[in-house]
Amino acid sequence: KQWYQRRVRGFFSRLTHSSLQSSVMVLKNMVSFEDVDDDLEDEIREECSKYGSVKKVSVYQEAQSEAEDAEIVVKIFVQFDKTSECEVAVNSLNGRWFGGRSIVATLYDEQRYLRDELSG
Fold it and tell me: Which of 44, 52, 64, 68 is 20 to 30 A from 80, alpha carbon to alpha carbon?
């Protein structure tokens, strides 16, 4: 039993530790597909600049299936200069209400982001 507890504790420790080493966050449930416009990236950059220096903002629209009428989920990726700035932004924005929606802000694997692996 102790072996199993140590193994599980170690797994979650590594998971938490590795997730804290990213300068990229993803914002979900912030806007709908219909709300995406040419000003969105600039608005996000301005808002996130309160937490640190923003390198890049990417708006990614992901169809949830191959069907023509599939739901489209909007993910907003924000890359900061420093991991500490990103952590502050995630902690400040996660659960915050915006336009009647509760934002889900999480850290995103920096290497996946740099390889343009934005789905999933």
Answer: 64
